[in-house]
Amino acid sequence: MLSVLDRHLKLWHVVLANVVALVWFAVMQIATQAALPGVKLFRCPIGMCPGYYSPAELNATLTRVGRTGRQYLAETLLPLDMVLPTLLLVAFAVTYVWFSRPGRGAAVPLSSGARYAFLCVPLFYWLADYAENWTLAEALQAYPNIPYRLARRASILTATKSQLVVASVGIAIALVVAAWGTAHRSGSDADHRLGENGPSPGR
Fold it and tell me: For residue 187, how many other CB atoms are within 10 A of its CB?
């Protein structure tokens, strides 16, 4: 699979995948702020939450947003969030592949094993995010009598998803920075060699 991507992947694929994922996330953010004032995607228990939250916190949030808010979560936000994990997975994957291609100047030379290992991180995020979405859908259906185990499972999946997406972003940034450093160093070395092998005096 990597060899096929290395041959056919273009920079515009990478840019497009990342732009689409960011725009989709922005749409979700704007829609949530409009429908649920005061509820942010970066706060527990809705959306990003690297730490665990208590079952009582989940119940309190669903109570605070009211019936209209719970309907929005079930009928709008969760369907939108069924698309985002795949968009992010594609964006992370093409970014990792592009900036770790072998034999390229603006890339980090990595073994196939290391490249596949990095790709597993956003894949695990993708799985955790979908599992969290299904669990939250169950919690919304069960409200106000959300079983403790269901709320606890939602908390664990939210924390896992959040930690994995942060790790995925960190890997992408590290690869981009390292690839830029490699390209800069290669350019400096080429200029240095050109200076050493330049024309001799008098020619």
Answer: 12
